[in-house]
Specification:
mainly alpha, two-stranded antiparallel sheet, two-stranded parallel ribbon, 18 helices, 6 strands, binds arginine
Length: 465
């Protein structure tokens, strides 16, 4: 229980090591080992800069660089032994370095602290996570655009309040998601731009008296500039919050698409069929084809939003500059990144393989009086009715059709005339769902001609092709 008998890792000030439970709550190596590549890259850049500035000798510096290279290889090769007693990735690497190169290793931490080190590592990691989100989002957009192109003229019911509202084209509906994911990519790029400042050299919080070159380390690590304020540099986790916010909004978008897939696979819809590769069976009901992946993507939004909420609460009212609280930033970031990558890949696979049922969609569009607005518009254009009056008259026609149990275009002209005397058989042209969508040519509208152009535009804007 007590730390007596354990060796102290903190040097002269300490006589005993930590209690077991202290080690358990304090250590982050079980999760921050994931930062090893960033940590070693940061150490290499720092070491090279210390040599250039004459702060450490070339002999020591080169020994350190060689040792770091070996440690990288050991970790990649699975032979590195991570030790909890050494707390975190930074101390694990440093301890191994001293075994490999002796006392020279002790010079690496000159003008550096774990506070700026971890902030730098995590920024690099978030940067990579953002880049991988962008690639995955582009794949999903490409899959959606391909289907949209095949279905520029496929008619389906467009919904408001989950009720058939007006006929739309499937291509148009799918391109709505392409826009959403396009905004996600915009947020990814924006987040990356702001995150790309280098904390290294802020040291514990106050900077250092050593003549370090922060611009050199920042640029060696691919950052746009060193962060301007050393206190902010070690205490700021906005870049993680922004990453999680971007991720939470993206997860919400994915959950909306996932929900539509679940719905469209359901009885009463059957608008889409998922491939065997993206369906699951039931252990008892042999007929079932369940959209489990879509349901899981729908659910993952919960943990991603949870990660954002969790970290917001960790940071709330946290005083400057560094507190160990900040160690709690990593697990939510890692978990959200993993969940997002998995969700995006599963969604892309599902969408790429999906087969849409144009027949079922058209039949659903023809039900439910979805062309009632077209009828009202016809009355405005041909009988010069004010729209409100046309709306009212159309409502009465719909009520009549409903009572008869028929579609609007199944009412006879004579019967329509009992409600709207001036109506003529030109009206039947607008009552078909095909003509309805064809007529929606306003900018951003659902007409097949528009969607055809929108597909080309989307390819250019989002895929650069
Ligand atoms: N493992 C720590 C973290 O993740 C590294 C920084 C530790 N700094 C300190 N002053 N104890 O935040």
């Amino acid at each position: 229980m007590s730390g007596k008998g354990k060796s102290a890792i903190w040097g002269g000030r300490f006589q005993s090591g930590p209690a077991d439970v202290m080690e358990a709550i304090n250590a982050s190596i079980d999760f921050d080992r994931r930062l090893y590549a960033q940590d070693i890259a940061g150490s290499r850049a720092h070491c090279a800069m210390l040599m250039d500035k004459g702060i450490i000798s070339p002999k020591d510096g080169n020994a350190i660089l060689a040792g770091l290279g070996q440690i990288h290889a050991e970790i990649e090769g699975g032979t590195f032994r991570f030790k909890r007693a050494l707390e975190d990735i930074h101390m694990n690497v440093e301890a191994r370095l001293s075994r490999l190169v002796g006392p020279a290793a002790g010079r690496l931490h000159t003008g550096r602290s774990r506070n700026d080190q971890v902030a730098t590592d995590l920024r690099m990691w978030v940067r990579e996570a953002l880049d991988s989100l962008d690639l995955r989002l582009a794949r999903l957009q490409a899959a959606l655009i391909d289907h949209a192109e095949r279905h520029v003229a496929t008619v389906m019911p467009g919904f408001t309040h989950s009720q058939a509202a007006q006929p739309v084209t499937l291509g148009h509906h799918l391109l709505a998601y392409v826009e959403m994911f396009g905004r996600d990519r915009g947020r990814v790029a924006d987040c990356r731009r702001r995150a790309n400042e280098c904390p290294l050299g802020a040291v514990a919080l106050a900077g250092t008296a050593f003549p370090i070159d922060r611009r050199a380390t920042a640029s060696a690590l691919g950052f746009d500039r060193p962060s301007a304020n050393s206190i902010d540099a070690v205490s700021d986790r906005d870049f993680v919050l922004e990453f999680l916010s971007v991720g939470a909004i993206l997860a919400v978008h994915l959950s909306r698409l996932a929900e539509e897939i679940v719905l469209w696979c359901a009885d009463g819809f059957r608008f889409v069929r998922l491939s065997d590769a993206f369906s699951t069976g039931s252990s008892i009901m042999p007929q079932k084809r369940n959209p489990d992946a879509a349901e899981l993507v729908r659910a993952k939004a919960g943990r991603i939003i949870g990660a954002l909420t969790g970290l917001l609460v960790v940071l709330k009212a946290l005083p400057l500059a560094y507190g160990k609280d900040l160690q709690e930033d990593k697990e939510p970031a890692f978990d959200a990144a993993d969940s997002l990558a998995l969700s995006l890949d599963a969604m892309s696979g599902m969408v790429e393989d999906a087969a849409f049922d144009a027949e079922a969609m058209r039949a659903a569009a023809a039900k439910g009086y979805a062309t009632a607005t077209d009828l009202a518009d016809w009355l405005v254009r041909n009988l010069n009715m004010p729209f409100r009056k046309a709306h009212e008259a159309t409502g009465r026609l719909v009520r009549r059709a409903e009572r008869r149990g028929c579609a609007l275009d199944e009412l006879s002209l004579a019967e329509m005339r009992t409600i709207v005397p001036g109506i003529d058989d030109g009206v039947f042209a607008v009552l078909s769902v095909e003509n309805s969508v064809k007529s929606r040519t306003s900018f951003g509208g659902t007409a097949p001609a528009n969607v055809r152009r929108a597909v080309q535009a989307a390819r250019k804007r989002f895929l650069g092709t």
